[in-house]
Specification:
two-stranded antiparallel sheet, 16 helices, 10 strands, 9% strand, globular, GLUCM_C, D-glutamate cyclase-like C-terminal domain-containing protein
C-alpha cells in the first residue's frame, strides 16, 4: 500500500509540474554558471591554453561548457602567465571566479550598498608634464580606467552607490573617462544617464601629501592608533596612509553630502599595491597613493604552500611600516568603511591590489613575464589580498566580463535594461579615445606609451574589439 501511495503521489500532475519546475531552475542555474565560466576563460586562455585546460578538467570530472572558447590574444599569447596563475590558484583551492565575485556583491540579503572602485596605474614617461607640482612626470595607463567604468555601470544600474576613487597622479584620467561615459549616455540613453547620475560619483582628487591647514592633531591621533610605534614623521608610509584615508572621508562627504552612507565594498582593478613594484621590480611607491591600505594583507599562515621568501618579505614589510593586526580596521573606520566590507580585486600581472590572495604561493614564486628584464612574482607580487579575485589577460576585459556576468546571473537590471552591451566595443573605443585625448597628462599604453588607441601593447581594432564582441556573444548564450 505504501508503494501504491508513493507511486500515486509521484504521478500527481501537481507533483510532476513542481518537479519539472525545480529541474528547469536547476538546469537554468547551471547553464548560467557555465556561461560565466566561458566569460572568465575567454579573458584568461587562448585556444591552445584552453585545450590543455579542458583535458585537465575532464580528467577531474568537472563540467566545462561546450561553447567555452579561447581568445587569440589571451593567456600565453600575452606572455604574462595569467593562464598559469588562474590554473595554479584553482589547484590550491583559490579559484579566481567571476560567479562568486558577482554573487558576493549582489546576492539577496547581503547585497552591498556602497562600493568604492579604485583604479589607476601610474606610468612614468616624458611625453607629458607632471599632473601637478611636486608629482612625477607621467600619466595613468590605459588599462584599468575602462574596466573601472564597466564595474561602475554594473553596480549603479542595480541601485548600488558607487564612488570612483581619483588620486593626484591618475585621477585626471579617471575623471576624463567618467565624464566621457556620462556624455555618451546623455546623448544615447537618458534613462542610463539619470541612473548613473543618481547612484555614482567621481570623487574629488584625494591626496596623501600634506595640504594647507592640515589637521595635524587628527592625523597624529590616527597614526598612533593605526600604526603603533610609528615615528610620527609626516612623510613616512604610515603617515601617507593615515592622511589618505582622512582625505578620502572628506572627498566622500563633498561628493555625496547628506546622501553619504558607509562603504561596504572595496573593488580594486589594475591598481598597484604594496610593495609597489612594477613589472621590472622598480619601486613606484612615491608615485602610488596607498589606497590599498584598506585591503587586508595576505594571510601568511593559510593556505598551505606559501613561498617562504614571499612570506619573509611580506612580514618584513609589515614590521617596517608598523602594520599590526588592527591597522586595516582602524583605517577603515577613519575612512568611513565598514569593518567587514567585502573586498575584490582584478589584476593581470601579480603586482595589483588583491593579487596577494594567490601570488605568494610557492608554485608562483619564480613565475615572471617573458624576458629576463622582468621581475619574478616573489619580488613584485602584491602583499594585499581580497575576498574575491578575478584575473585576466587585460584588466579592462575583466571589468566588462563582470558587467556581463552580472547580467547573465541576475538578469537585466530593472532600472536600466540596457547596459550598452549591444554596442560594447563601440563604447569602449569611444572611452579609450577620450582618456587618451584628455588634456595632458592623458592616458598612455603601459607597455608602449607612444602607441595610439592601445592597451597593454595591443591595438584596439585588432585585439580588443574582437574580444568585446566575443564576450557579448558568450553572454547571450
Amino acid at each position: 500500500m505504501s508503494w501504491l501511495l508513493s507511486t500515486s503521489s509521484f504521478r500527481d500532475p501537481a507533483s510532476l509540474q513542481l518537479g519539472s519546475s525545480i529541474r528547469f531552475m536547476e538546469d537554468a542555474g547551471a547553464a548560467k554558471l557555465l556561461t560565466v565560466e566561458a566569460l572568465e576563460l575567454a579573458i584568461t586562455h587562448n585556444e591552445a591554453d584552453l585545450t590543455a585546460y579542458k583535458l585537465r578538467k575532464q580528467e577531474l570530472g568537472e563540467p566545462l561548457s561546450s561553447f567555452c572558447r579561447g581568445y587569440e590574444f589571451s593567456g600565453s599569447s600575452a606572455g604574462r602567465n595569467i593562464e598559469l596563475i588562474y590554473q595554479k590558484a584553482a589547484a590550491a583551492g583559490l579559484k579566481c571566479g567571476l560567479a562568486s565575485a558577482v554573487q558576493a556583491c549582489f546576492q539577496s540579503g547581503t547585497a552591498v550598498k556602497h562600493v568604492l572602485i579604485c583604479s589607476g596605474f601610474f606610468v612614468a614617461h616624458d611625453r607629458a608634464a607632471a599632473p601637478s607640482p611636486g608629482l612625477a612626470a607621467g600619466s595613468c595607463e590605459t588599462d584599468g580606467p575602462l574596466g573601472a567604468l564597466a564595474l561602475l555601470r554594473a553596480f549603479a544600474s542595480r541601485g548600488v552607490l558607487v564612488s570612483l576613487f581619483c588620486d593626484a597622479h591618475t585621477g585626471p584620467v579617471i575623471a576624463a573617462g567618467y565624464a566621457a561615459m556620462m556624455d555618451h549616455f546623455v546623448q544615447t540613453d537618458g534613462q542610463m544617464a539619470e541612473t548613473l547620475r543618481l547612484f555614482s560619483r567621481c570623487l574629488p582628487l584625494v591626496t596623501d601629501r600634506p595640504v594647507l591647514r592640515e589637521d595635524i592633531s587628527a592625523l597624529q591621533q590616527l597614526l598612533l592608533e593605526a600604526f603603533p610605534g610609528a615615528d610620527g614623521q609626516l612623510d613616512s608610509s604610515p603617515a601617507r596612509c593615515a592622511r589618505l584615508v582622512l582625505n578620502l572621508k572628506n572627498s566622500l562627504q563633498l561628493a555625496w553630502g547628506e546622501g553619504l552612507c558607509e562603504i561596504d565594498c572595496l573593488f580594486a582593478i589594475e591598481r598597484l599595491g604594496a610593495p609597489y613594484r612594477n613589472i621590472r621590480g622598480q619601486d613606484k611607491s612615491s608615485q602610488t597613493e596607498p589606497i590599498d591600505c584598506l585591503w587586508p594583507l595576505a594571510d601568511l599562515v593559510l593556505p598551505a604552500g606559501l613561498s617562504a621568501q614571499a612570506v619573509a618579505a611580506a612580514t618584513a614589510y609589515a614590521a617596517e611600516n608598523k602594520i599590526v593586526a588592527s591597522t586595516v580596521a582602524v583605517l577603515r573606520r577613519a575612512a568611513g568603511v565598514t569593518p567587514g566590507a567585502v573586498t575584490l580585486g582584478i589584476g593581470d600581472g601579480g603586482n595589483e591590489v588583491g593579487m596577494g590572495r594567490v601570488v605568494l604561493l610557492e608554485s608562483m614564486a619564480d613565475m615572471r613575464p617573458d624576458g629576463d628584464e622582468f621581475a619574478a612574482m616573489s619580488v613584485n607580487g602584491c602583499y594585499r589580498s581580497c575576498d574575491h579575485l578575478i584575473v585576466a589577460t587585460v584588466s579592462n576585459w575583466a571589468g566588462n566580463a563582470f558587467e556581463l556576468a552580472a547580467e547573465v546571473l541576475l538578469g537585466p537590471s530593472a532600472r536600466v535594461p540596457y547596459l550598452g552591451r549591444l554596442a560594447l566595443a563601440d563604447l569602449e573605443q569611444k572611452l579609450l579615445k577620450a582618456i587618451m585625448a584628455s588634456p595632458f597628462p592623458s592616458a598612455v599604453d603601459g607597455k608602449y606609451p607612444e602607441l595610439p588607441d592601445s592597451v597593454d601593447g595591443m591595438s584596439f581594432e585588432a585585439c580588443h574589439r574582437p574580444l568585446y564582441d566575443l564576450l557579448v556573444e558568450l553572454s547571450r548564450s
